[in-house]
Amino acid sequence: MEARNKNVATIAAARIWMVMPSGRTLSQLVNESVASAYKQAGYEVVTEPGAADATSMKVHIVEFWSWFTPGFFSVDVSSKSLLRIETPGGGKC
């Protein structure tokens, strides 16, 4: 037996917007997270196109899920994402 809520997509979308800071997009947040990960790995991240000795990359959001887990005294917010990172000549990471 399977039961489904007809408004699942609406509820899921509402949850994402409640988690997102006002005026921010998922793409902006993922961009910042990927840049931060590269910096933590020791890379210098630049935003100017054509910077010397820099390799450009494209980050595709393949899948993104976000959900709340209510507790007695707190609410946990969790997310799961699948990203595809492409570099010219380097293929996919």
TrEMBL record:
It comes from the Bacteria. This is Uncharacterized protein.
